[in-house]
Amino acid sequence: MITIHDGWAKGRFSGHPMNAVNGGQLFANYEYVQLADYNSEMPYLFNPSWSRRQKHQWILERFVEKLLGATADFPNVVYEVMNEGEWYDQNALRAFQQHFLRFIEERTELPIMVNAPSLRAEAAATAVSLHEPVWDSSTDAVEAYRHYVDAYDDSPQKPVVFSEPVPEYQGGAASRDALMRLMWGTLLAGSGFFVQNDLSWRAIPGEPDLIFDIEGHASRFFAARTNIDHYSPCEEYSSTGVCLGLSGQEYIVYAQSGDTFAMDLTAFSGSVTVRFYNPRTGQYHPGTSTISGGSQQTITKPDSGDWICVFQAAN
Q1: So where are the chain's domains?
Q2: What is the pLDDT of residues 79-94, one digit of tens each?
Q3: Under CATH, which architecture does the 230-313 domain have?
Q4: CA 67 vs CA 28, 45, 282: distances in Å
Q5: How far apart are CA 292 and CA 295, in angstroms?
Q6: What is the pLDDT of residues 140-171, one digit of tens each?
Q7: Is pLDDT at 274 greater than 70 in this prediction?
Q8: CA–CA separation, 294 and 312 (whole Å)
């Protein structure tokens, strides 16, 4: 994920390259989102007689064009427009976002996200990126799951991605477990999730950065399901309160604590296979059990730790 434009100028404008004292065209941080023409692009050739806004817009457009030229050939890139821009004038910000969403869309078919407080976004955006909920070492999967399930009740126009888990992860088992639960709760609510890997995330020196392994395990788990886009949150089927599934075919449950939990398998007409996936190791627990569908069942976990429990209709 590459952020194009960022709200960090709110507190660090003195060192911003667009600041006039550093050779830019801005005299105040709020001027960053002020363009000369939100509906049109600047001519390709620079004109020294242009206004401050025209020069600023031209510089931003040439920068974005150069960035796209260097990165748009990679298949795994997602662009995000205006990270943390909530402090700008919102009318100017929205017009700014619309301008650069269109600008990017015309130059690449790669996904484009817009960072917005609402699930609704402009037509050019592929998805909406959010930074909530704020987490700490006690955060569980249910909290993240409920946040996104409740948000989706508003019938969003766009898919949602949790693009920046706040606060920053800085290593340690407790924080890593909380971020793992935050990730799986978000994913099983039908949303996307990124673990940041930038210079502001300072993991403990010398300690393996296992959180990125954990993110990879989750990515491979979902990549193995070719029809995952048809799944939907269905927490009513599991006492854990975190469940994504396709009724009568497969349920994916996050079971965080306790030795057992209850499952409603009445939608399954026959036998159901049960497998347990370890979110820390990316490995399935040895063996697969088969239970009867069509009723309520009490499920026993391999142990009282965190497990992903997969229920599938037996062939």
Answers
A1: 1-125, 230-313
A2: 999 888 888 998 999 8
A3: Sandwich (2.60)
A4: 25, 18, 35
A5: 8
A6: 999 999 988 887 665 556 788 898 888 877 77
A7: yes
A8: 13
Question: Closest Cα to residue 215, out of 279, 167, 172?
Answer: 279
In 3D, which of 187, 308, 313 has the Cα closest to residue 249? Answer: 313
Return the structure tokens found at 72: 């748009």
Q: Which of 255, 245, 261 is nearest to 305 (CA)?
A: 255
CA 35 to chain centre: 29
Q: Beta strand pairing status for 127-130 and 289-292?
A: unpaired
Please state which of the ranges 117-121, 180-184, 281-285 shows the lowest mean pLDDT.
117-121
Tell me the CA distances in angstroms from 48 to 53, 137, 271, one per residue in order: 12, 53, 74
Q: What is the DSSP string of the chain?
A: -EEEEETTHHHHGGG-TTBGGGTSSBSSGGGGG--S-TTSPPPSS--TTS-HHHHHHHHHHHHHHHHHHHHTT-TT--EEEEET-TTS-HHHHHHHHHHHHHHHHTT--S-EEEE-SSS---TT-SEEEE--S---TT--HHHHHHHHHHHHTT--SS-EEE---SS-----HHHHHHHHHHHHHHHTTT-EE----STT--PPTTS--HHHHHHHHHHHHHHT-TTGGG-EE-GGGBTTS-EEEETTTEEEEEE-SSSEEEEE-TT-SSEEEEEEEETTTTEEPS--EEEE-SSEEEEE-SSSS-EEEEEEE--
User: Hey, what's the torsion of the CAs at 77, 143, 304, 209, to 10 degrees?
Assistant: 30
Segment 180-238, tens digit of pLDDT: 999 999 999 999 998 876 555 555 666 557 888 999 999 999 999 989 989 999 999 99
Mean pLDDT of all residues belonging to the chain = 90
pLDDT at 76 over 70: yes
Quote the pLDDT of residue 199: 52
